[in-house]
From TrEMBL:
Gene3D superfamilies: Photosystem II cytochrome b559, alpha subunit
Protein name: Cytochrome b559 subunit alpha
Keyword presence, Transport: yes
Entry GO CC: photosystem II reaction center; plastid
Homology family: Belongs to the PsbE/PsbF family.
Keywords: Chloroplast, Electron transport, Heme, Iron, Membrane, Metal-binding, Photosynthesis, Photosystem II, Plastid, Thylakoid, Transmembrane, Transmembrane helix, Transport
Span of domain Photosystem II cytochrome b559 alpha subunit lumenal region: 34-68
Protein's UniProt keywords contain Electron transport: yes
Organism: Cuscuta sp. RGO 90-12
Length: 76
């Protein structure tokens, strides 16, 4: 039963090692920047370029592709 599992010494020995290990591994994965590299997301200092410090907002209804191409040309 569930009570037998929770009161088992073996359960607490196993989980007292695995739960902190998973927490530390996740913290290292994010803090070293490896998560940015693995998932390809920009780092906090890479969201905006020197030339563009605002959000690339597409306001035109009829030419969104041209606006998107303009934003991508500016960011390169």
């Amino acid at each position: 039963s569930f009570a037998d599992i929770i009161t088992s010494i073996r359960y607490w020995v196993i989980h007292s090692i695995t739960i902190p290990s998973l927490f530390i591994a996740g913290w290292l994965f994010v803090s070293t920047g490896l998560a940015y590299d693995v998932f390809g997301s920009p780092r906090p200092n890479e969201y905006f370029t020197e030339s563009q410090q605002g959000i690339p907002l597409i306001t035109g209804r009829f030419e969104p592709l041209e606006k998107q191409n303009e934003f991508s040309r500016r960011s390169q």
